[in-house]
Amino acid sequence: MTSPYRLLSCAFVLLIACGDEGVTTLSPSTDTSDPTTSAPVTTTTTTTGEPTGTSTTGTPTTTEDTASTTDDTTTGPPPSNCSQYTDMAACGQNGCEWTQIVSYTHSNQGCQGDIRDFCVPTDASGGLTSVWRDDNGDIEVLQFPFTPTDLGPEWNTCDCDGPLACLCTSAALDCPERLDEFCGAITNENTCSNAAVGGSFACGWFTVSQEGPLDGACDDPPWQKVCLPGTDLSSKTCDEISLPYVDQGYCMGWTDPVYWREIDGIVEVTTICGPKPSGWTLCVADDPDQPDECKCGCKI
Q1: Number of alpha carbons in the 13 Å side-chain half-sphere of residue 24
Q2: What phi and psi, each to the nearest 5 degrees, are found at residue 99?
Q3: What backbone torsions phi and psi does residue 256 show, to the nearest 5 degrees?
Q4: Which of 106, 100, 105 is nearest to 145 (CA)?
């Protein structure tokens, strides 16, 4: 049965909706821009039913606040110093990448390379770069396949004044004044022949004899096998070049090319089957300015 209370209520609602012009302002308006109807509408619609997503009550969450919260939780600036992390777990947990790079040392055995674990930024970019540091007398040279920007102040970019191990890296350094020192420190023929600077072979294994002061006389000290910077390192010329000395009766058929140089008043001569020693002068028959010590090379 229909409750008398509900019939009375319905009659009351209909009376309001159908009244004369003096009371029509209590009816809901379809014009949401009319401020005079917003308060009554809010009052009548919030007393029954569940609030909808378009309800005007409560404090709204703005789009700006939501975007700010999302940025803080999902993105952010990259770590400022990934190189400080020395284990894989800490590296990955701080937004960095655990990778392997090459480290170099230089000794009388030439360049020695080793693989070293290192923590780097995930957005690393740039070209091949070599850096070095002095860790209490222990020189460490690292080669990165990019340009590191987050290393500490103890690291220095390799240049011609850096350690010799900087020349071991594939990063090109134009340091001809360091090559004598770089090659000269090597005491093994195979290592010498495989010594590279900036990714290119730079040294050759030569036989050298010191002939004393510039006096035209051949001294007879023991000759030495030494590693020197050179060019045309892969060439073989023993059977292709015959010195003019052969025609003059010198050297008794010696055909290897002879080179000379003077260092601190001491004349040195050298010969090798192929490569040319950098900074040395080829002995020739018609050069009046070359020393007579050129003929001393035939005894090597």
Answers
A1: 4
A2: -140, 180
A3: -70, 145
A4: 100
User: Residue 155 carries which side chain, given as an amino acid letter?
Assistant: W
The Cα 290–Cα 242 span in angstroms is 18
| Closest to 79 measured CA to CA, from 92, 60, 62 | 92
Number of DSSP helices (H) and strands (E) in the chain, helices first: 6, 13
Q: Give me the helices (H) in the chain, please.
A: 4-17, 35-45, 63-74, 88-93, 179-184, 189-193
Task: Give the Å distances, CA to CA, from 271 to 71, 111, 209, 228, 276.
Answer: 70, 25, 9, 12, 9
Half-sphere exposure of 61 (CA within 13 A, CB side): 6
Q: Is 2 exposed, middle or buried (0-12, 13-18, 19+ CB in 10 A)?
A: exposed
* CB distance 233 to 177 below 8 Å: no
pLDDT tens by residue, 209-262: 889 888 888 887 778 899 999 998 877 665 544 444 444 444 555 556 789 999
CA distance 96 to 80: 10
| Interval 136-194: pLDDT, tens | 888 999 999 999 988 989 999 999 999 999 999 999 899 999 999 999 999 999 999 99
CA-CA-CA-CA dihedral for 108, 110, 115, 119, to nearest 10: 90
- Copy the structure tokens of residue 162: 């850096």
User: What does DSSP say about strands 224-231 and 196-197: parallel, antiparallel, or unpaired?
Assistant: unpaired
Spatial contact of 189 and 205, defined as CB atoms under 8 Å apart: yes
The tokens of 48 are what? 């029954």
> Of all helices (H) and strands (E), which one includes residue 277?
strand 276-277
Identify the CA nearest to 203 among candidates 232, 230, 234, 173.
230
Per-residue tokens: 217: 């006389």
Q: Quick one: which of 219, 226, 241, 104 has its CA closest to 167?
A: 104
Q: What is the DSSP letter of 79?
A: P
Nearest of 112, 81, 110, 114 to residue 100 by alpha carbon:
114
